[in-house]
Design brief:
Elements lengths: L11 E4 L5 H11 L3 E6 L9 E2 L2 E2 L3 H6 L4 E4 L5 H12 L3 E4 L5 H5 L3 H7 L4 E6 L14 H7 L2 H4 L14 H24 L4 E5 H19 L16 E6 L2 E6 L3 H11 L13 H6 L1 H12 L4 H10 L4 E3 L3 H6 L1 H6 L2 E6 L3 E6 L25 H7 L4 H9 L4
Parallel strand pairs: 1-2, 1-6, 2-5, 6-7, 7-8
Antiparallel strand pairs: 3-4, 9-10, 10-11, 12-13
Helix pairs in contact: 1-8, 8-9
């Protein structure tokens, strides 16, 4: 697939992001074709050889910053800001995830960009919001997990707070910001004007709490830890097998009947303790014990095959090696090859969306760039001469 056939190829993005939340948002735009320029501090003043994402050639940074070009630029210098605003003048989107005050201190906030380009869509992610009591606090994923209620419902009952095993606040805030940017670009087609779009790690995780948050807001019910048991669907959870564990979801009368017949537990259908939702809710632990006694007699694959054949959702519990060895995962092609002159050829995590006409290419279009790899190229496109570029390099502007 050619670069221009991707859906966002007509848009230009200026990327000021670092860490994970902001790059997650920009990755959505870049993967779908947006011309993306990643701005980083010049090597002479870039003290972080590694950071929260590890080394430049490490898995994390390589996964987050593909499909971009890299421009080094000292945004604390007047000349650096001059280059930045030249980029903004012809751009559609600027994305940043500094602490809320930093962009204002640098003079590259939304209002400053809007003066140069009224059509600019400016995207921001912060820890807790752009203002308010915590607006100036630094925010990281685990802090937001705790403040958003997620850690209070994760883990075994009585275990105490447990973090989720992925940076879910970073990832979801990035996804939400990408969605907001796309909404603003659609609205711009009507109004002709850009706008500031912003979210935070805290807002994102509260939104992701979804039905658990709704339980409290509507009914005043404060959800607790339920371990591997579904909070409301019974029986749904993790059950032992002869060689490991599986997930089974058999809540609801139809599924529970199919489930009991498949396991040879038809007697439960005539038992008042288990033949209704309320009975199963009150006697969940006993029911789980009965089920576990049966499932532990045969290997996982037996039950996965038998229950799915009966129309009861059931699946294995994989580690990451097993995930990517699964035939369905391989069929979906989410491990996408990237050819990097600096690192070699290796797979990274591709996009989860498939489109009938403008889907993702079979290989990553652009490898993650080296620091400032396209600096001269981008500056030349802005009209700077070789002599001017060398002069800027000598003054550590680029």
């Amino acid at each position: 697939m050619s670069e221009r056939s991707l859906p966002l190829s007509r848009f230009k993005v200026v990327d000021l992001t670092a860490h994970r939340a902001g790059p997650t948002a920009v990755r959505q735009l870049a993967d779908w074709g947006a011309e993306t320029i990643k701005i980083e501090a010049p090597s002479a003043i870039n003290k972080e050889k590694t950071g929260t994402l590890g080394a430049r050639h490490g898995f994390d940074l390589q996964n987050l910053h593909r499909n971009k070009r890299s421009l080094t630029l000292n945004l604390k210098s007047d000349e650096g800001k001059e280059v930045f605003f030249k980029l903004v003048k012809d751009a559609d989107v600027v994305v940043e995830n500094y602490r809320s005050a930093v962009k204002h201190r640098l003079g590259i906030d939304y209002e400053a960009c809007r003066k140069v380009n009224p059509r600019i869509v400016y995207g921001s992610i912060s820890g807790f919001g752009q203002d308010g009591p915590y607006g100036k606090r630094p925010g990281v994923d685990q802090i937001a997990q705790g403040m958003g209620g997620l850690m209070s419902v994760t883990g075994l009952p009585g275990q105490g707070p447990v973090r989720v095993g992925i940076p879910i606040c970073d990832l979801t805030s990035g996804m939400f910001l990408a969605q907001g940017i796309l909404i603003a670009l659609l609205e711009r087609e009507v109004s002709g004007e850009g706008q500031w779009v912003h979210t935070s790690l805290l807002q994102a995780i509260i939104s992701m709490m979804d039905f658990q948050a709704a339980r409290y807001l509507k009914d005043g019910d404060v959800p607790k830890q339920a371990g591997n048991n579904h909070p409301t669907g019974i029986p749904t959870g993790v059950f032992p097998t002869a060689d490991g564990h599986i997930n089974i979801a058999a809540s609801g009368e139809v599924l529970f009947e199919r489930f009991c017949k498949t396991l040879g537990l038809e007697r439960l259908l005539d038992d008042d303790r288990y033949n209704s939702f309320e009975g199963r809710r009150q006697n969940r632990d006993e029911l789980n014990g009965i089920i576990g006694d049966v499932t532990s007699t045969k290997p996982s694959q037996h039950w996965v095959d038998a229950l799915n054949e009966a129309g009861v959702p059931c699946g294995p519990i994989y580690d990451m090696q097993q995930v990517f060895a699964d035939p369905q995962v391989q069929h979906l092609g989410i491990a996408t090859p990237m050819d990097s002159p600096a690192v070699g050829t290796f797979p990274i995590v591709g996009q989860p969306l498939m489109m009938s006409r403008t889907s993702q290419p079979d290989r990553i279009r652009r490898p993650t760039p080296e620091l400032g790899e396209q600096t001269d190229e981008i500056l030349a496109e802005l009209g700077y001469t070789e002599q001017q570029i060398e002069a800027m390099r000598g003054k550590q502007v680029v």
